[in-house]
From TrEMBL:
<keyword id="KW-0347">Helicase</keyword>
<keyword id="KW-0378">Hydrolase</keyword>
<keyword id="KW-0547">Nucleotide-binding</keyword>
<feature type="binding site">
    <location>
        <begin position="36"/>
        <end position="43"/>
    </location>
    <ligand>
        <name>ATP</name>
    </ligand>
</feature>
<dbReference type="GO" id="GO:0016787">
    <property type="term" value="F:hydrolase activity"/>
</dbReference>
<dbReference type="GO" id="GO:0003677">
    <property type="term" value="F:DNA binding"/>
</dbReference>
<feature type="domain" description="UvrD-like helicase ATP-binding">
    <location>
        <begin position="15"/>
        <end position="293"/>
    </location>
</feature>
<dbReference type="InterPro" id="IPR000212">
    <property type="entry name" value="DNA_helicase_UvrD/REP"/>
</dbReference>
<dbReference type="InterPro" id="IPR014016">
    <property type="entry name" value="UvrD-like_ATP-bd"/>
</dbReference>
<dbReference type="GO" id="GO:0005524">
    <property type="term" value="F:ATP binding"/>
</dbReference>
<dbReference type="InterPro" id="IPR027417">
    <property type="entry name" value="P-loop_NTPase"/>
</dbReference>
<dbReference type="GO" id="GO:0043138">
    <property type="term" value="F:3'-5' DNA helicase activity"/>
</dbReference>
<dbReference type="Pfam" id="PF13245">
    <property type="entry name" value="AAA_19"/>
</dbReference>
<keyword id="KW-0067">ATP-binding</keyword>
<dbReference type="GO" id="GO:0000725">
    <property type="term" value="P:recombinational repair"/>
</dbReference>
<protein>
    <recommendedName>
        <fullName>DNA 3'-5' helicase II</fullName>
    </recommendedName>
</protein>
């Protein structure tokens, strides 16, 4: 093979940048959807397009567009999934006032901030629609509106009244916002989508500021906002162009559209990137097979192009190991080490016997079990299922009602030495930071009394912190008893409520939000305190097993993917079903018949995402409920060669 042909093969996508520049500089500009698989260099393509469209790199039509943007004080908006992606794109673009990069939350808030009457109207309309829908659904059930459901409906009505009474709405895209008028992250997205659909002022503002909007990771972008933008681009074809970048095969959040490619309007351009610059050929072949697989229970279409690896990346190694899921968690950890050892023996790559590989799993429960913080995690899920686990965009900081435990109390714990001594200087700083010293009595004696009370509380807190047997309640009690901080009302009330939790609902039984939260609070108060620290690390992406947060957009030389249905919450994911260790359920078959998304679809995409992170070598470990059946199907499938399939003894 000659140098020229190597270059030719590797450069098969070289024309895509120019192709996209052509669409966006057409008069009027044309919207597009870029099919771009794993490791295809989406960010690089995006940045190269932006450089040409803003006159950084010589480009005749780009320079004309730049001139027009500058003349009207406009810019191209790039919407990314994470704050990290904002910095990556900004760093690669350099100083460029014709491009403005934001996360979707910032983008939405930039548009609606200050339009308080519109925000209120949208919030009320959204909640009223929710109320009507949930009421109708409950009425249609044989039991009608149960007591538990009525409580939930009343809560929606209360929210509507609260919105009506709010004058000014506040929000911070980078953190949770508290206090009167505070909007949650999802409110901001819902409100923006509603206003883009219903208010011409906002539509005009958007196209006047940003005639071109490019959305990265569009497969996971909240569908409400995406639909509103696509609808607007359809209507305002001459004034607003949308570019969607992403890989529908890598959709991992339920916020995105089930099958985005099929929603792309006919008149949009659909360029394609065919290269995978990241992985060795063996891995690229595997991910192509995974995506093309015709599995029973699959409803998602096989749209999108097969990828090509770089010519010089013609190697790579893959193994799948199958073991019995009835093993203990410790036994499984040992089994996984054995697999790594086998990989070392097969490839001679020393990283595998030095623990220098990236463990990946996408089930939060698995991470929580391996990381020894399962009680804390499960309590958080009961308190707020949407906020308990880290999210790819880095928004989730845990349930809002427990922020005091995760922030103030965690900071206070940092002032406690391993012997239980308290660094009083540091502790005082924290009290000052949170305004705990502002209401000290003026009277000298009362002041001394209060200081003494505070000292006793922090000493008791320190003793509880260093005791490995302490529960969250043990640590919290001394602090709450003396009202040291201004604490979220929900936490204070839950602590004061000494009623026992109701039992968990049986299969098919309904549970009110309040009853679920009461179970969550009780579980949290009795969880070991030391689990909270591990839970915090997990939220910030620091646990040994990587989850979505780390996986999105990352790459690692050597990857081990651990698949264990026992640790998957609910029935949304099942590796055993795609590998043949378990039959499809009745529900799966019903979903197939209705053409709905199935367990198989979701699991296949998770597998695609995790496998495509590997550059050189990849180990898959399946803990199966029926290893014999799974092995038979794996051997029959064309995914792996005979010598790539092994049994964990
Ligand atoms: N044109 C190119 N030539 C050589 N290497 C490239 C090229 N484009 C990207 N790469 C390299 O390939 C790897 C994958 O690129 P990148 O992470 O941008 O892909 P991606 O499309 O964002 O992938 P994913 O969606 O899987 O996260 C990176 O290591 C990047 O440096």
């Amino acid at each position: 093979m000659t140098a020229v042909s190597i270059l030719g093969d590797n450069d098969r996508d070289a024309g895509v940048v120019e192709e996209i520049c052509g669409y966006l500089t057409e008069a009027p500009p044309r919207s597009y959807f870029l099919f771009a698989g794993a490791g295809s260099g989406k960010t690089r393509t995006l940045v190269e397009v932006l450089r040409r469209l803003t006159g950084v790199i010589e480009h005749e039509k780009g320079e004309q567009l730049a001139l027009r943007l500058r003349m009207y004080g406009r810019s191209i908006k790039v919407v990314t999934y994470t704050k990290n992606a904002v910095s990556v794109i900004n760093a690669r673009l350099g100083d460029n006032d014709l491009v403005s990069v934001s996360t979707i939350h910032s983008f939405c808030w930039e548009l609606i901030n200050g339009f308080n009457d519109d925000i209120r109207e949208a919030l009320i309309a959204i909640k009223e629609a929710q109320l009507a829908k949930e009421t109708a659904e409950a009425q249609a059930k044989p039991k009608g509106i149960t007591f538990a459901k009525q409580r939930d409906l009343d809560e929606i009505k209360n929210d509507i009244e609260d919105f009506r009474a709010t004058d000014v709405f506040i929000y911070h895209p980078d953190r949770n916002t508290y206090g009167s008028g505070a909007l949650a992250h999802n409110h901001v997205l819902d409100v923006t989508a509603w206003l883009l659909r219903n208010k011409s002022t906002l539509q005009t503002i958007l196209k006047d500021r940003h005639p071109i909007v490019l959305i990265d990771e569009s497969q996971d972008t909240m569908k409400g906002v995406l639909d509103a933008l696509m609808e607007l681009a359809g209507r305002e074809g001459r004034n607003l162009a949308i570019g969607l970048l992403g890989d529908h095969r890598q959709r991992i959040y339920p916020d995105g559209h089930v099958d985005l490619p099929s929603l792309v309007p006919q008149n949009w351009a659909t360029p394609e990137l065919q290269m995978n610059h990241r992985s060795q050929r063996r891995i690229v072949t595997l991910i192509n097979r995974i995506w093309e697989a015709e599995l029973e229970g699959r409803t998602q279409p096989v749209n999108g192009v097969a990828q090509h690896s770089r010519t010089e990346k013609a190697g790579g190694a893959v193994r799948i190991f199958v073991g019995d899921t009835s093993r203990s968690p410790e036994g499984k950890v040992l089994g996984e080490r054995w697999c790594a050892e086998q990989m070392y023996e097969a490839t001679g790559i020393t990283f595998w016997n030095e623990g220098q590989y990236q463990l990946l799993a996408l089930e939060h429960k698995l991470v929580a079990t391996r990381g020894s913080f399962l009680d804390a995690y499960e309590a958080m899920v009961l308190l707020d299922p949407n906020a308990a686990a880290p999210s790819g965009s880095g928004d989730n900081k845990g349930p809002s009602a427990v922020q005091f435990l995760l922030n103030e109390l965690a900071q206070l714990e940092d002032c406690v030495g391993i012997d239980g001594s308290v660094d009083e200087f540091k502790a005082t700083e924290i009290f000052r930071q949170y305004g705990c010293l502002e209401n000290m009595p003026d009277d000298n004696a009362a002041r001394l009394n209060r200081a003494d009370e505070m000292l006793k509380a922090i000493t008791a807190f320190a003793v509880a912190c260093i005791n490995p047997k302490s529960t969250v309640e043990d640590v919290l009690a001394p602090i709450l008893d003396v009202n040291l901080f201004e604490i979220d009302r929900r936490l204070v009330e839950a602590y004061a409520d000494k009623s026992p939790p109701l039992p968990a609902p049986g299969r098919g039984e309904e549970e009110s939000k309040q009853a679920r939260m009461r179970r969550g609070w009780c579980a949290l108060f009795s969880a070991p305190w030391n689990q909270l620290k591990r839970y915090r690390n997990y939220l910030s992406g620091l646990s040994e097993l990587a989850t979505h947060q780390v996986v999105k957009g990352s790459e690692f030389m050597h990857v081990m993917v651990v698949m264990d249905d026992d640790m998957a919450s609910g029935s949304l994911i099942s590796y055993d079903k795609i590998f043949g260790g378990m039959e499809l359920s009745k529900r799966d078959k019903e979903n197939v018949a209705l053409g709905k998304e199935t367990t198989i679809d979701r699991t296949l995409r998770l597998l695609y995402v995790t496998c495509s992170r590997a550059e050189e070598t990849l180990v898959l470990v399946l803990w199966s409920s029926n290893p014999t059946a799974a092995l038979a199907q794996i051997r029959k499938s064309k995914w792996f060669a005979e010598d790539e399939v092994l049994v964990i003894p």
